[in-house]
Write a structure and sequence with these properties.
0% helix, 13 strands, 41% strand, four-stranded antiparallel sheet, single chain
Length: 185
């Protein structure tokens, strides 16, 4: 192995510089720093796709009925993977995703429960949170989880089931569903 000591390597004008060949490993030793003063590609990664949608008008929920929450307005949707027409996030790629949801529900009867679910491909066995009312005050219910999307057609949606009829209250900071791809997944 030979060592080359230089301060700068410049490619010919109008070309790119390639270090190593396919199958080679380039090692950056401990304590070394890579400084980026230009456009970087292949470093770090991006948390895309990512989105956040919210309920823009109150939604009535019937008692004892599994109901898809109508997140009808997007705050943002990088990658255009959330569909407000069916309230689904379809990542379109395999990987791990952090998904979260919050709903603010109107008061329902004391000691009645409410299940909030993040559902994958229509199945109700993904992840859920059970809230039991104490008194009759409005309640904010939230849920989050890291989930794995195994193929391009997997989709996720948020559903609710309550023992008592209620309303999901609207506002961007009250009732929302969001998520993003985890870097390196």
């Amino acid at each position: 192995m030979a060592t080359l000591f230089v301060d700068k390597i410049d490619p010919q004008s109008g070309t790119s510089l390639e270090i190593g060949s396919s199958g080679d490993t380039i090692t950056i030793p401990s304590g070394a720093t890579i400084t980026n003063n230009g456009t970087q590609t292949g470093f770090g990664g991006e948390n895309t796709p990512n989105f956040r949608a919210y309920v823009s008008s109150s939604q009535s929920i019937s008692a004892n009925t599994l109901t898809t929450i109508d997140f009808d307005t997007e705050a943002w949707d990088v990658g255009s993977k959330f569909d407000t027409s069916n309230n689904r996030f379809t990542p379109g790629e395999a990987g791990y995703f952090f998904l979260y949801a919050n709903v603010f529900v109107s008061a329902f009867a004391d000691q009645n429960s409410c299940n909030l679910l993040i559902v994958k491909n229509g199945s109700t066995d993904t992840v859920y949170y059970r809230y039991r009312a104490s008194g009759t005050a409005n309640a904010s219910i939230n849920i989050s989880n890291v989930v794995y999307s195994s193929n391009a057609t997997d989709y996720f949606e948020v559903k609710i089931n309550t023992q008592d009829a209620c309303n999901i209250l609207d506002r961007t900071d009250y009732s929302y569903f969001g998520g993003y791809k985890l870097i390196g997944s």
